Amino acid sequence: MLLSFENVFLRYDPGRAVLTDINLAIMSGLFYFLTGPSGAGKSSLLRLIYQIEKPSEGRITLFDRDTSQLKHKEFPALRRRLGIVFQDFRLIPHLTALENAALPLRLAGANEEQVRQHVTELLAWVGLEKRIHAMPSELSGGEQQRVAIARSIVNKPRILLADEPTGNVDEESAKKLMHLFLELNKMGTTVIFATHQQSLVEKYAKPVLRLLNGRMVSSYAVEAA
Amino acid sequence: MSLPSNLFSTAFREQRLGVMLSFLIGIMVYLGCLAMAAQAVLARTSVAWGHDLQNRLTIELPVQHNESAEKSAERADKALALLSQRMEIAEADLVAESETSRLLGDWIEDPALLRSLALPRLIDVEIAADQKLTADDFRRILKPVADAVQVHRHEQGMDQILGFLKGLGYLAGLMLVLTGVAIIAIIGVICRAAMAVQRDTIELMHYMGATDSVVALQFQTYVRRLAVPSAGIGFLLAVVTVGFLALMLGSLGGLSLVSPVSWVTVGGVMALVPFMASLLAIVTARLSVQRLLRRLI
Q1: Which residue, among B130, B131, B132, B148, has the nearest Cα to B79 in the 3D structure?
Q2: Tens digits of residue pLDDT in B108-139
Q3: What are the helix (H) ranges across A10-96?
Q4: Which of A17, B95, B245, B262 has the fewest CB atoms within 10 Å, i.e. is most exposed?
Q5: Nearest-CA residue of chain B relative to A99?
Q6: Average pLDDT, chain B
Q7: Which residue of chain A has the CA closest to B211?
């Protein structure tokens, strides 16, 4: 088991829980949809996974480590084993596609030759071989998200977290992005794909984690439509 | 690891925090250099003056009743010979009668009256370093030639001026310390503002597994790149200012007041200011960013 939540609560105010009594187990190599309406707590749950938030109660186990026992200095190494894709891409506007995608690799200490070769290959894999020196402002929404995907997997993470990655792109781009996520999953990466688009969930036969008002209301596999 | 050098350029370039930082560091270094120069000059001058005054005195040989000018001069020469024999005395010089008359000229305007007065003979004495002679010691030494010598120590009455000089020196030192405190405050505030502007980038770097020290190193590098040149400019402007002041003082004849000071030494201690200011700015940037990052996430 890669990740588990046991009776996890998240409260920003003492009286108001954003997440209530969450229990889940994420198995290695699977593709999960994390669904629910806006404000259900999907992003908060993802923030708990990548350790930007700490649970108010309960226990989170990630890569066989109880995260409450981790020291501040241990978080960076843990986060390098996670990849994250955001709805708003979060590319650094004054860096090229290549520089943006290379950031995690540079943080991990790779040398310039490794960075250039690996990131160029990766950008080619996401279909951006001719746009590697383009600035984010010169790329379409779909292309920007592909750069963000390349950035999220450049360190070969074991879990890829995607927070509404298709929310800001057109339907055609969304289809291409979805294809990339499925390909990554086939290559062995565990994917947690947060979305409120029920049509996506229904289209693919993948396990679904459904949140409603901060509670996990279902955790089961659905059949392909 | 070589992260892009413009990672946080939004805050430092586009939001003009870099310009503000450069400008303020330049001003602080300029003021700090002036304070350092003043401190060096005043400290050295007060020590030199204090040393001079402590070891210098004037002995007055009063004219005896009905004593001729020749007799008085002969007695003064004997007194001078007695003093010059002593190991404790580094130097003893007879003050010329014309010099004594010139000194009194400010009070006695009539030359005829001045010539008619039986002026005492004065001997300027410098006691050797690490030696002490009291007024009674001088009276005993000169007993064979004069009964009632008077000893005037130069330090008497100059204590307040020396104290004032020392006070100015301490004030300059305090200004230097305050400059350092101001640099710490400026860097702290600018780093905080830059981090607020770049919060998304900082968060993103954390998501990607950046350690606090990697993020802090980026800020530290920006601050170094901005602080070092502006500190250099502040220093050069201060050197020009001090040089100009020295020229002015020289043209007014006041340079001899601070003559014991080597201007190379003053320049040398002034050069410490941009070095220390840059170091302070870099260290403050690193520590303040790391402290804020611990609170952020």
Answers
A1: B148
A2: 878 777 777 778 888 898 888 788 888 888 88
A3: 42-49, 75-79
A4: B262
A5: B4
A6: 85
A7: A76
